Amino acid sequence: MNFFGYLELCKPRIGVMIALTAAVGYAAVAERLDPAALVVLVLAMLLGSAGSSVFNHFYDRDIDRRMKRTAGRPLAAGLISKPVHALWFSGLLLVAGLWLALGAFNWAVALHLFLGAFIYAIVYTVWLKRRTWLNIVIGGAAGSFAVLAGAAAFDPGVWLLPVLMAITLFLWTPSHFWALAILLKDDYAGVGVPMLPVLVGEARCSRWILGNTILLVMSAAVPWVMGLLGAVYGAVSTGAALLFLWQNIRLFRVPGRPEARQVFLGSMQYLSLIFLAVVLDRHLPVLW
Q1: DSSP3 helix / strand / coil % (the chain, rounded to 5)
Q2: What is the pTM of this model?
């Protein structure tokens, strides 16, 4: 068995991000952080994310072989000789994640985990990715369910702040991924995947990114404006928003790959700061 090949199929970096998103959702609504609950939540989300990621590798192995960035992936490169084994592995991981979520928490956590995996594996990978530029817009909802799962792990009845955070996650994905798509435009064009910069070019895509980012930072301010989060969140999220908007404006003024790379990296920095702001705002006295 090719252990490292199967590990790569799980897309560990994406899994860690999904797990951290769920942990932040938990921290946003919990009065106190329960380390044991967080460990179990993270493990369940890692398993669910891995299941959908393995399926993504399985389904996209044909176009992965033809793209520079993905040609070395285990299924694309033939490092795993029987793709059907990866398909079974995908199902096993997802079932394990759902079983853990249901057994350790409640049906709401399991449902959100399932919906996130379903949207990424089926709605995005199978239905939308090769058909429409809205692929990543609609498919971006997959990450939003992680924050809802995390909140439901503490209390499924607390919904307003988690829903607002999920909307922010939903709006974050296009800015992040369209910037990456500018960097990978030639790869996507070569395999016929209709990512936005392939269809409209880098200049128009940069305008879409800026417009989406304006909506993103506005949505991130809503919990503070509504009084659901306090001054710490307001200060950190505002600073992060100004920095990210400036990076987007630079891309708008000079569309191109160097500026797109800065927006792509800046999007991850922005989201990290938003996550940190939520945790600090809710638990700074305890952490201090």
Answers
A1: 80, 0, 20
A2: 0.92
